[in-house]
Specification:
Blueprint (H helix, E strand, L loop, with lengths): L14 H10 L7 E4 L9 E4 L5 H9 L4 E6 L6 H16 L4 H22 L2 E3 L5 H13 L3 E4 L18 H11 L5 E8 L4 E4 L3 E2 H7 L3 H17 L10
Parallel strand pairs: 1-7, 2-5, 2-6, 3-4, 3-5
Antiparallel strand pairs: 6-7, 6-8
Length: 242
């Protein structure tokens, strides 16, 4: 009797975007995923380093569990806003490019990035009262079994190998989910560019984390240290995914 074939996992994306992603795989190689505990399945929060576009692209191309990303609203509100954000904030401010080079480069890069983020179905984030809309949309994803990926690094000084601080917005989402009876596991992860390895720490339930560290800012610092440690540990000390 022949074995039943396992259906290959696909993110819930439109057909044109799935085709577009096959082209991107030429540029971005699949990393070695290492899970120090359970792999994410559903209704979890995944915290990760960013490395510019590399980590979001890598996760979107190769994660075999359902994900939706948080991302700054400037990347999700039209081509003009995206162009302004990419030239001044991203390439000039965070990556240190010459402003004129950034403007010229983004004439091509911004339209392509705009296409990508439309396909990605990014969940917009804000640093004011509108964050409530972010958490509401995220809760709908969670209630349907999805996972939320958050890049909490304060990248005002650029994307660093050893991150300096985490924003605590993810804790607001986890708290609201808990009030609805969903105790979300939180995964800390880190993509290591030097060996193209993506390491996931053992998950911890938000309720347990809250008991240990009630203050959300202290919680963010604790998880920041966990993430940075994943980038420093020697590869031979990690157990590879089987």
């Amino acid at each position: 009797m022949s074995k039943k074939k396992t259906k290959k996992f696909r993110q819930d994306r439109k057909l044109w975007f799935r085709i577009f992603k096959t082209i991107l795989k030429i540029r971005y190689r699949k990393p070695n995923f290492i899970y120090l505990g359970d792999k994410p399945t559903s209704q979890s929060i995944i915290l990760s380093n960013h490395i510019g576009a590399r980590v979001p692209l890598t996760l979107e191309l190769y994660a075999d569990f359902p994900i939706r990303f948080w991302g700054t609203h400037e990347m999700n509100t039209g081509l003009r806003n995206m162009y302004r954000y990419q030239t001044k904030t991203y390439y000039h401010g965070k990556k240190g490019w010459n402003i004129h080079l950034a403007r010229l480069f983004c004439l091509l890069a911004s339209p392509l990035t705009n296409i990508f983020y439309k396909g990605l179905r990014l969940i917009s984030t804000y640093q004011d009262y509108r964050l409530r809309a972010t958490t509401q949309e995220s809760l709908e994803v969670i209630q349907n079994g999805g996972n939320i990926v958050v890049f909490p690094e304060d990248s005002s000084e650029g994307y660093l190998d050893e991150m300096k601080s985490f924003y605590a917005g993810f804790a607001l989402l986890a708290e609201r989910a808990l009030k609805l009876g969903i105790d979300m596991p939180i995964y800390v992860s880190y993509l290591r560019p030097k060996d193209n390895t993506y390491v996931y720490e053992k998950p911890i339930l938000y309720s347990e984390l809250k008991k240990q560290i009630p203050d959300k800012h202290d919680m963010a610092k604790y998880l920041l240290d966990k993430a940075n440690s994943l980038g420093k540990v020697k590869l031979k000390e990690l157990k590879s995914e089987t």
